[in-house]
Amino acid sequence: MPKPSLFAQDDVYSRSIPRQAGSRVAHSGAPYDFGVAYPDPESLPLAELAESLRVGLEEEGRGLAKYPHPSGYPPLREYVAEKLARDRSLSVSPEDIILGDGSSQPNHMIIEALMNPGEVVLTEEFTYPGTLGILRRFGADIRGVACDREGFLPDALEDAIRSASGEGKRVKLIYTIPTFQNPLGWVMSLARRRHLLETAQRHGIAILEDDCYVDLRFEGEPVPAIASLDTDGVVVYVGSFSKIIGPGVRLGYLAGPSPLLDRISAIKSGGGVSQLGALAIHRYAVSHLEEHVRSANRILRRKRDAMLAGLADGFGELSDVGASWSRPRGGLFIWLTLAPGVDMQAVADRALREGMIIFPGIRLSPEGNSGHNCARLCFGYDPPRVIREGMGLLAGICRREAVASV
Ligand SMILES: Cc1ncc(COP(=O)(O)O)c(C=O)c1O
Phi, psi at residue 329, to the nearest 5°? Predict the structure, then answer.
C-alpha cells in the first residue's frame, strides 16, 4: 500500500488556515443553474476580446517579458479611474487604484489588512458567502444587521454598534453591497447611504463598499456611491469586470485612501494582475464595454422577467407554500421566501437530484442561523425559456417539501 501523503496529516498545516476543505468543484453543467451569479454566456463578446488581445499584444506584447506594475497595468487603472468618475462621481486617480483577481482578491486583501481575530464586522442580514468565508478565515466576529428594502435599518445599525461596544469589542468594519444587494436585490437609498457613512465616521469604523453589480441596472436611476460622499476617508470601494464581462476574466479593483493602499501593497503577493488579461480588457473596455453593458442588461432584464413570470405561474397568486419573492431593478438575484416551516436546504437537495442548483438562504446568513426558509435564485445564466420552466419545477419541489415537512 502506498504511504499516505504528508499532506494527509493535520499537523502539517498552519494553525491559521481553516480546518475544513475548500471547494474544488467546477461549474456544474446542471440543466437548471440558478446557483451562482454568472452573467449571460451567449452574449460574451469573444470576437472583440480576441481582437483587443491581438492589438494589445501587437502594441505592448514585449512587456510580458517583465513583471507587471505591482498595482496592475497603468492604462487599465486609468480607465477604471475615468469610469468611476463618470459613473459613480468618485474622484480617484490611477494611483488610488489597485487591480486584483476579480473583486474577491481586493476584498480578501482589505479584510486581511484590517481584521484581527475577535473584532466585529457588520454586514447586511444576508450577504455574499465568498466574503463571509474570508471574514471567517480572519476570525472576524460577523454580525448581520436587519435591513428593509432601503438598506440597513438605522436603529438596528446603531444598536449593533452599541451592543458590540457594550461587550468591549471593537467594530472595525461594515461590509456592504449597497447596489442590487447579493442576495436581497435592493438598492440602498441615498438617505441610508448618508446615515451609514455618518455613523461609520462618528464611530471610526471602516466601510467596504462592494459595488460589483452597479452596472447591471435595468430600471431606476443610479444612486451615488457611498465612497463619493465620503469626506473623512473611511470608505474603500471595490468593483469588478466579472459581472459585466465574465468571472473568467478574473479582473477587478479596489480604490481607497492611500494609507490603506500602502498597507495592502505590502501584503499583496505575486506582483500585479495578469498583464495578458489587462492588455486585452483595457482595449476592450475603452472601445466596447459601455455598449456591451447596455445590451447585456437588455438580456438580463428579459431573464429577470422570465424568472418573475415563472415564479408567479409556478407558485400562483395566492401561494399555498407562503411564497413571496423580491423584484429587483437590476443585478442577478431573486430572493425567494417560503412559509417559516419549509426547509430550503432540503428543497435545494431535492432540486439538485432533479438537475437544478439553487442556493439555500442559510449559506448567506452571516451567523449561519437564519434564512432556513429562503433561497437565492440567480437568473443570469440560463436562457429565459429554461428559467421559466425551472421555476415551475422548483414550485413543485417546494410543494412536495412543504407537504413532507408537516
Ligand atoms: C458581492 C460580491 N462580491 C464579490 C464577488 C466576487 O466576484 P469576482 O471575484 O468574480 O469579482 C461576488 C461574486 O459573486 C459578489 O457577489
Answer: -95, 10
- The CATH number for 366's domain is 3.90.1150.10
Longest dimension (CA), the chain: 67
Q: Are residues 241 and 306 in the same domain?
A: no
- Residue 269 belongs to a domain: yes
Contact 158, 181 (CB under 8 A): no
From 101, 126, 182, give the residue whose CB has the most ligand 1 atoms within 8 Å, as the site to mutate. Answer: 182
> Do 66 and 159 share a domain, yes or no?
yes
What is the pTM for the complete model shown?
0.96
Question: How far, in Å, is the centroid of ligand 1 from the Cα of 234?
Answer: 22
Q: How far is the CA of 8 from the centre of ligand 1 (A)?
A: 31
Q: Let me know: does 53 contact 45? Beta carbons within 8 Å.
A: no
Task: Supply the range of the domain harboring residue 109.
Answer: 46-288
> Are 195 and 318 in a shared domain?
no
Is 160 part of a structural domain of the chain? Answer: yes
End-to-end CA distance of the chain: 50
Residue nearest to atom 6 of ligand 1 (CA): 104
Q: pLDDT truncated to tens, each residue of the chain (406 aa)? A: 788 899 889 899 988 777 777 766 566 688 999 999 999 999 999 999 999 999 999 999 999 999 999 999 999 999 999 999 999 999 999 999 999 999 999 999 999 999 999 999 999 999 999 999 999 999 999 999 999 999 999 999 999 999 999 999 999 999 999 999 999 999 999 999 999 999 999 999 999 999 999 999 999 999 999 999 999 999 999 999 999 999 999 999 999 999 999 999 998 877 789 999 999 999 999 999 999 999 999 999 999 999 999 999 999 866 678 899 999 999 999 999 999 989 999 999 999 999 999 999 999 999 999 999 999 999 999 999 999 999 999 999 999 988 777 6
> Which of 288, 314, 348 is the last residue in one of the domains?
288
All three cell numbers of 213: 453589480
Q: Tell me how far the alpha carbon of residue 129 lies from the centroid of ligand 1, in angstroms.
A: 9
How many other C-beta atoms lie within 10 A of the C-beta of residue 191? 12
- Does residue 328 have its Cβ closer than 6 Å to ligand 1? no
Q: Is 179 in the pocket of ligand 1 (CB under 6 A)?
A: no
Q: Is residue 15, in this structure, part of any structural domain at all?
A: no
Task: Tell me the CA distances in angstroms from 365 to 154, 185, 374, one per residue in order.
Answer: 20, 15, 10
Mutate to test the pocket of ligand 1, among 27, 101, 110, 128 (most ligand atoms within 8 A of CB): 128
Q: How far is the CA of 119 from the centre of ligand 1 (A)?
A: 23
